[in-house]
Specification:
The complex is a heterotrimer.
Chain A: H1 2-30, H2 33-37, H3 44-54, H4 60-73, H5 86-121, H6 126-140, H7 143-157, E1 170-172, E2 175-177, H8 182-215, H9 218-225, H10 230-252, H11 254-268, H12 273-282, H13 286-314, H14 316-324
Antiparallel strand pairs in A: 1-2
Helix pairs in contact in A: 1-13, 5-6, 5-8, 5-11, 5-13, 6-8, 7-8, 7-11, 8-10, 8-11, 9-10, 11-12, 12-13, 13-14
Chain B: H1 9-17, H2 21-38, H3 40-43, E1 65-66, E2 72-73, H4 84-120, H5 122-136, H6 140-151, H7 155-182, H8 185-192, H9 197-234, H10 245-256, H11 262-294
Antiparallel strand pairs in B: 1-2
Chain C: E1 6-17, E2 20-32, E3 37-41, H1 48-56, E4 63-72, E5 75-76, H2 82-88, E6 93-96, H3 100-103, H4 110-121, H5 126-139, H6 145-148, H7 158-171, E7 176-180, H8 188-203, E8 208-213, H9 216-222, E9 225-230, E10 233-239, H10 240-245, H11 250-257, E11 305-307, E12 313-315
Parallel strand pairs in C: 3-8, 3-9, 6-7, 7-8
Antiparallel strand pairs in C: 1-2, 1-4, 4-5, 9-10, 10-12, 11-12
Helix pairs in contact in C: 4-5, 5-7
The chains are: A mainly alpha, B mainly alpha, C alpha/beta.
Chain lengths: 325, 295, 325
């Protein structure tokens, strides 16, 4: 078991190293690193000073080592536009994205599971067909267009919700959050909903399949034979059995949430790391883009690593196989 | 003794397919969309990229208006006076061609690598499959986005990014299907007899990999269209000179807040219909081919 | 004369399948007296399990009770509304299913499942319900019942799980228990333990028990009366000792003969030739005809029931006479 852990950890490090190499050499192969890492608006003397400071006059392998050293120490360059260290910039925007992601997942669970269960319990009813049809549309439409439609409906036609931006924030344990104020909530709803729609469609399909399958099981029949109320059977016996696969899949989808957040934040001008990325690409603020790439790679590798670990601990079959190899 | 008539598998497939009315409607939708895209130049009332044909005085007109020259703008115009209907038809063509080229290339690369992995086994297989696993553990949109941040703008770069994001699905599927076939006795025998591997691979292994590939390719086309649209919307996709539906929607974003919704809305509807049709057809194809694959 | 606990008259249950209408239970009639054990014996497909579910009104679609009376203490279960049925199920009439692993909900604890049953039918506090559950477990011979309550079904052995199910059935002191092959999924040694427990538990109570099984040896020790079912009909009925000593129907004879015993040590086992009939394709006349050693031309017509004295009934044109082989 320990050997398996070490092996997986080593693999994760390897992936990080490969990614770092690809990023580094990608930057060099695709453009003049001087242009990429130096602010073109500085005057010549400042540029030369920057070149020396960044070590761009050194041979390439030394630069690579410095790059790796930078990653290890958390120094990922300084943003052109904001003139602050890139990593610090990203971390300051991270809470906004995490808040959005959290509420999107919450919505997915609160809306998706009941709707999916209804579709599973009454499969031939018109309501169920509407739910399933809606889930296909939610699944297939691109995220950004759904966001645009939400803005069109709620902000332009009906004018009940703001069309973008983050509302008032209050500090919760030193981290700014927006859901504690009404204004903040009003700004949070649409982007969270937009981010959630894809997940909701997924959860609906999962819950429906799970409910159909579970309803046919003997223990549901036995619960009826004992005279339990339908409310109890659905709310406890069936629900608890479908929660496990649904939550598992949702957990795995965490990565996708962060990816789609890029689009949602752009549409709703939500000041998270996604919007930061798009802005930086547009403004050619390459250090921020590089820092974002490294951070995301790191996050994904860590997520995958921990999910693997959790699985191997929960599923005894994997544990046994891992112990053998 | 009379011969038992053998139904061609294609005929059986078509018969199974037409059993679901929704799938048939979706398939018709896909065909219509494909025709519109192919014959764009003939169908569109105006070539929106020929500056001689557009009139800036007709800018930002709502749907149904008539322009200065008596030209009917069925779906309105954008701020430059381009007819939205024509822009959408050309945009559809670009969205579809980018996705088809990308998926086609991804299929070719993925199938080759998948078969290579299944055939070689050992370290080569382990290496390829490890690359596949890592690739698939990252969300496609993010990888494409970051690739384009490095590569820069241009249709060819978009296609490259899409191929790089999608090859892994095919490699994994083909390797699985190829493994099943390769384990069969006749292939083992052929290998022992040192028959040309290419003949075995292309003659026998390849046809058995096709059904799952077809299923996945259908869905991946829809995926590619969606990803390209998102990328173009975010500004890292196709250039302004050859706008896809995604870029058209992006252009219209700013006007949404002032009530001129049609610039974004109609391209979005076309995109939605295209994606839903392809997804429904793909779902149905998968349902038909799956029980057959297990037989 | 005491009234029967359960009185089934001309019960017909049909399944409306795509391939046609399948009559799983075909005019079944029997009574169960308080304190009496009725064994229903038959091969799989004979309709015995469906009879049990029909009584409980727990048929899965597309099954439906088409006609007949099911009188529980005089009340026709077929005419009651859902709420009334729910009140009776688990309280006045309880069911024990075949496979306890599938019957108990795997994600809920034993105490949850027992307490919810009690609370559905009795106005008691949670603590009181827990006490009732604990007592019930002790009664069926489960050691350390208080701790067992806190466990999950998969933490128990098959025999213990079935004891839990029996405890749940007995808990609220029902008038009738329907046990559907309760020992089929268990080891032979556990099987005899359970049978022993059942006999002990029954001896103090005045309730009716229907024991559905394919195994004649099981009913031999436990039941007072036996109904033999074939192709949805009761083909023979009578007191257990008399029926086993002097079977009148050739099928019953076949079942008895196919039990391996010491007397025929070393000889080939006797079998009833042929297979269970396809209920969708029943031919005219007696359904046992293709397999019957005593079949004659008259068997092309449906046999009527004929009652001998002493509560015996047989549905056969050529029943085995006393003394005949």
């Amino acid at each position: 078991m320990l050997a398996y852990l070490i092996r997986r950890f080593g693999q994760s490090l390897l992936v990080m190293a490969v990614m770092a190499t690809i990023v580094f050499f990608g930057l060099y192969m695709v453009g003049n690193p001087v242009d990429l890492l130096i602010n073109p608006e500085d005057d010549l003397a400042a540029q030369e000073a920057a070149i020396r400071r960044l070590g761009l006059d050194q041979p390439i392998y030394i630069q690579f080592l410095q790059f790796l050293k930078g990653i290890a120490t958390g120094n990922l360059g300084v943003s052109f536009v904001h003139n602050t260290p890139a990593l610090e910039l990203i971390l300051s925007r991270l809470p906004a994205t995490l808040e959005l992601a959290f509420f999107a997942m919450l919505l997915a669970i609160l809306l998706g599971i009941p709707l999916g269960m209804i579709a599973g319990l009454y499969p031939n009813s018109p309501g169920s067909r509407v739910i399933m049809g809606g889930s296909i549309i939610g699944f297939s439409t691109p995220n950004f267009w759904q966001g645009l439609m939400l803005i069109m409906l709620f902000a332009v036609f009906w004018r009940v919700l703001p069309s973008g931006g983050r509302g008032q924030t209050t500090d919760l344990f030193g981290i700014p959050v927006s859901f504690l104020t009404l204004d903040g909530l009003r700004h949070l709803i649409l982007p969270a909903l937009n981010l959630a729609i894809f997940k909701i469609a997924l959860v609906i399909r999962l819950s429906r399949a799970g409910t159909s399958e579970v309803s046919l099981q003997d223990y549901v029949k036995y619960a009826r034979a004992r005279g339990l109320s339908e409310k109890r059977i659905v709310g406890v016996h069936i629900l608890k059995n479908i929660l496990i696969p649904v939550v598992t899949v949702l957990g795995l989808e965490l990565g996708n949430v962060i990816a789609f957040a890029v689009v949602t934040e752009t549409v709703f001008a939500w000041p998270g790391i996604g919007k930061l990325l798009i802005d930086s690409i547009g403004l050619l603020d390459r250090p921020v883009v590089v820092a974002y790439m490294m951070l995301t790679v790191f996050m994904f590798v860590m997520i995958n690593f921990f999910v693997d670990m959790a699985y191997s601990m929960l599923d005894p079959r994997i544990r046994i196989k891992a112990g053998k190899s | 003794m009379s011969a038992i008539p053998v139904e061609s598998p294609f005929k059986r497939f078509v018969e199974d397919f037409v059993r679901s009315p929704t799938a048939v409607i979706a398939a018709i939708g896909v065909l219509v969309i494909a025709c519109v895209a192919i014959f764009a130049a003939q169908i569109a009332p105006q070539n929106p990229y020929d500056l001689a044909e557009i009139n800036i005085m007709d800018g930002s007109l709502p749907p149904g208006s008539v322009g200065f020259d008596g030209f009917h703008y069925w779906l309105g115009t954008d701020e430059q006076g381009r007819d939205m209907l024509s822009a959408m038809i050309y945009g559809l063509r670009i969205s579809l061609s980018v996705s088809l080229i990308a998926v086609g290339s991804a299929v070719a690369i993925g199938m080759s690598l998948g078969m290579l992995a299944a055939w070689s086994g050992g370290r080569i297989e382990a290496f390829i499959m490890r690359a596949v696993d890592i690739q698939l553990s990252f969300p496609a949109l993010l990888v494409a986005l970051l690739l384009l941040a490095i590569l820069g703008k241009g249709i060819d770069k978009v296609i490259i990014a899409l191929v790089l994001v999608q090859w892994a699905y095919f490699a994994r599927t083909v390797r699985g299907a190829a493994l099943v076939e390769i384990r069969k006795d006749y292939v083992m025998a052929a290998r022992c007899l040192a028959l040309q591997p290419m003949r075995i691979l292309f003659g026998h292994v390849l046809p058995n990999c096709l059904p799952p590939v077809i299923v996945i390719a259908t869905v991946q086309v829809a995926n590619a269209i969606a990803i390209e649209a998102s990328l173009s919307f975010l500004g890292v996709g196709v250039p302004i000179t050859e706008p896809s539906l995604g870029l058209l929607i992006s252009n219209g974003f700013g006007y949404l807040l002032s009530g001129r919704y049609w610039i974004s809305f109609y391209p979005g509807v076309v995109l939605l219909v295209t994606l839903v049709s392809i997804n429904v057809v793909g779902d149905h194809v998968r349902d038909i081919l799956n029980p057959r694959m297990q037989k | 004369m005491t009234a029967p606990v359960l009185s089934v008259r001309d019960l017909v249950t049909e399944f409306d399948t795509r391939a046609g209408v399948l009559r799983a239970v075909n005019n079944v009639c029997f009574d169960v007296m308080p304190g009496e054990v009725l064994g229903i014996v038959g091969e799989s497909g004979s309709g015995k399990t469906i009879t049990g579910f029909s009584i409980m009104q727990l048929l899965d679609k597309p099954g439906k009770v088409k006609s007949g009376e099911i009188l529980l203490n005089g009340k026709d279960l077929g005419r009651l509304g859902d709420a009334e049925l729910r009140r009776l199920r688990g309280d006045r009439i309880a069911m024990i299913f075949q496979d306890p692993m599938m019957t108990l909900n795997p994600v809920l604890r034993i105490d949850t499942q027992m307490i919810e049953t009690i609370l559905a039918h009795r106005k008691v506090s949670r603590a009181e319900a827990r006490q009732i559950a604990e007592d019930a477990l002790a009664q069926v011979g489960i050691p350390s019942p208080a701790e067992r309550l806190k466990t999950y079904p998969h933490e128990m052995s098959g025999g213990m799980r079935q004891r839990v199910v029996i405890a749940i059935a007995l808990m609220l002191e029902p008038d009738l228990i329907i046990a559907d092959e309760p020992t089929t999924a268990l080891d032979v040694t556990i099987q005899s333990q359970i049978l022993f427990e059942m006999q002990r538990l029954l001896s103090n109570r005045n309730m009716g028990l229907i024991w559905i099984t394919h195994d004649l040896t099981v009913v031999a020790g436990l039941a007072h009366k036996v109904a033999v079912m074939y192709a949805g009909r009761i083909v023979e009925f009578g007191p257990v000792g008399d029926l086993l000593d002097r079977p009148a129907h050739p099928y019953t004879r076949g079942l008895i003969d196919s039990i391996p015993s010491n007397a025929s040590h070393g000889e080939r086992l006797t079998q009833i030739p042929g297979m269970t009939p396809n209920l969708l394709n029943l031919e005219e006349g007696c359904p046992f005809r293709p397999r019957c050693p005593r079949a004659s031309d008259i068997c092309a017509s449906d046999p009527e029931t004929s009652s001998a004295g002493d509560g015996r009934m047989v549905r056969c044109h050529n029943p085995i006479e006393e003394g005949a082989l």
